[in-house]
Recover the amino acids of this structure.
């Protein structure tokens, strides 16, 4: 009996040992699986974080590109608006210039008629209309009268009437003692109106045809100033120095010296 009991206890002990070993193996396997799961979970979280970070960077890049596109669109709109405003201003200036030109043409026509009256010419009639018997033509103005009315027109800044009068004066009285003055005043009219190239030519006429005239020094001075107005400093200096050389004691030479020092 005792032997049987010992055998049973022995067998039972062996069974318990196997169970314990089996449980230990199971626990060990579970721990390994748990570690694998943890590692797998860590890898998944890292992957998700990397993927999220990549998506966020791409989203930021897209937002930046959209901002750049919007900036370019704003700049294009601004340039278009500026171009539109500039074109509108240009059209307005053109319209103003055309209106001014039309008004000037009308004024010039009336001035020409006055000049024709001054010099004894009759204005032309309308084409296609039979001319009526005209009144006797007014007698031609004398040399002194024509110069006087032309100079008076200049003094009151009626430049077109004055120019027409002086031109007609030179045509009728080219040998007059006042011819040099008439030519000089034509140059002055062009200078005052801003036609500096034409003024230079008229002053040159005075310099070449009337070198001993009392207007010669003035012609040199104003020609030099006209060249300066055109931005031709070299020519301006050349003419002003010629004035100083030819008329060193004149008041015009004093002005020329000051001008030369300013230009240089």
């Amino acid at each position: 009996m005792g032997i049987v009991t010992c055998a049973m206890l022995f067998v039972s002990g062996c069974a318990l040992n196997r169970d314990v070993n089996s449980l230990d193996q199971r626990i060990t396997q579970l721990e390994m699986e748990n570690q694998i799961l943890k590692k797998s979970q860590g890898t998944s979280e890292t992957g998700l974080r990397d993927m999220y970070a990549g998506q966020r960077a791409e989203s930021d890049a897209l937002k930046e590109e959209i901002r750049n596109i919007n900036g370019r669109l704003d700049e294009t709109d601004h340039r278009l608006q500026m171009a539109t405003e500039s074109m509108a201003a240009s059209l307005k200036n053109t319209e103003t210039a055309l209106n001014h030109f039309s008004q000037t043409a009308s004024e010039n026509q009336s001035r020409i008629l006055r000049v024709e009256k001054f010099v004894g010419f009759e204005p032309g009639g309308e084409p296609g209309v039979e001319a009526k018997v005209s009144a006797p033509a007014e007698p031609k103005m004398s040399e002194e009268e024509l110069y006087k009315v032309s100079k008076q027109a200049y003094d009151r800044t009626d430049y077109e009437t004055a120019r027409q009068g002086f031109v007609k004066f030179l045509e009728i009285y080219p040998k007059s003692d006042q011819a040099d003055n008439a030519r000089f005043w034509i140059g002055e009219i062009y200078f005052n109106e801003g036609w500096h190239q034409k003024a230079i030519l008229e002053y040159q006429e005075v310099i070449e045809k009337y070198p001993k005239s009392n207007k010669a020094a003035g012609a040199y001075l104003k020609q030099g100033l006209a060249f300066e107005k055109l931005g031709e400093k070299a020519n301006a200096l050349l003419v002003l120095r010629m004035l100083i050389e030819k008329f060193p004691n004149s008041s015009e030479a004093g002005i020329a010296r000051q001008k030369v020092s300013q230009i240089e």
Summary: Residues 4-12, 121-138 have pLDDT under 50 and may be disordered.
